[in-house]
Amino acid sequence: METKLVRIAEISATSKHPIFTSVYHLINEDMLKQCHKELDGNKAVGIDKVTKDEYGKNLDRNIKELVQRLKNKSFKPLPSLRVYIPKGNGKKRPLGIASYEDKIVQMAVKKILGAIYEPRFLNCMYGFRPNRGCHEAIKEVYQRISYGKISYIVDADIKGFFDHIDHDWMMKFLEWNIQDKNLLWLIRKYLKAGIMEQGKFEPTEEGSAQGSVMSPMLANIYMHHVLTLWFKLVVQREMQGECFLVNFADDCAPRRRKLVT
User: Fold this and answer.
1) Closest CA to 203 of 50, 82, 49, 92
2) What is the pLDDT of residues 188-218, one digit of tens each?
3) CB–CB of 106/213 below 8 Å?
4) Of 33, 57, 102, 140, which sees the most CB atoms within 10 A?
């Protein structure tokens, strides 16, 4: 499984416009068992109340049945459980806690998407990426300010980014590199799975729940198309002088250095 993901990453890294038409089959018993192994058993449970230990007691049977449902498309994600955690500004951040089986499938999808998109993400992106994080983003901003010729900095935060991701545009972005209808079907299923809050079901017509295994990857793919590629292909070409972008999740800090003549 790892070898196949590495091969996907190599194709993505070396092709100008790679298109993947058959990757859904990688979500097999081996991959799902590996995802089960990697998941943190101490995380909060979803609406099914199933823990990692409970699911693992009949792991072989559970995984076989899961693979069969994925193959015949009878698989249906459960709604995420809506919970709230405090933010630094006194407000509360909504999180969506998926059921344990959904966490397994989401991690498998995340692995495939990571192999496809990680080689294509620009270096200015620091959120939810291997060996990158907020400290590295802050370090780059600090170095640019300390040693560069900076005219001005724009610090921007996209309000409610995760909660308002447009599903149609999300799918269009995915379709640019993925034409496996089965994988796209599964991702759309998760986007439309809905949430449960205080025992009441609410449909999800937009957004991708923070707290889910797959959401950070989907958010990065969306941001890759709407911000970082736009900055590289449009802003940098039209700007006089130099400009840089540092992006972390829904936060970004574009910086401009004026052209000196």
Assistant:
1) 82
2) 999 999 999 999 999 999 999 888 999 999 9
3) yes
4) 102
> Do you know the residue count of the chain?
261
End-to-end CA distance of the chain: 55
For 205, 233, 255, the CA distances from 229, given in Å and listed in that order, are: 26, 6, 16
In 89-241, beta strands by DSSP E: 92-97, 152-153, 156-157, 195-197, 200-202
Write the CA distances from 162 to 17, 112, 222, integer angstroms. 27, 21, 10
Residue 255 near residue 243 (C-beta atoms within 8 A): yes
For the chain, the structural domain boundaries read: 1-238
Q: Are 234 and 259 in contact (CB under 8 A)?
A: no
Cβ(154)–Cβ(94) below 8 Å: no
**Does position 260 have pLDDT exceeding 50, yes or no?**
no
Region of 141 on the Ramachandran plot (φ > 0 left; ψ -120 to 50 alpha; else beta): alpha
Q: How far is CA 139 from CA 20, 90, 128, 135, in A?
A: 35, 27, 16, 6
Q: Do 202 and 195 form a contact (C-beta atoms < 8 A)? A: yes
- Whole-angstrom distance, CA of residue 138 vs CA of residue 5: 31
CA 245 to CA 127: how far, in whole Å? 13
Place of tokens 């590996």: 34
For 224-251, write each residue's pLDDT tens digit: 999 999 999 999 898 888 888 999 987 6
Look at the alpha carbons of 180, 9, 177, 108 in this order and tell me if their dihedral is positive or negative.
positive
**Could you give the CA distance from residue 94 to residue 164 in angstroms, rounded to a whole number?**
13
What CA–CA distance (Å, rounded) separates 46 from 217? 20
With a CB cutoff of 8 Å and minimum separation 6, the contacts of 122 are: 224, 228, 229, 232
Task: State the Cα–Cα distance between residues 37 and 53, nearest whole angstrom.
Answer: 11
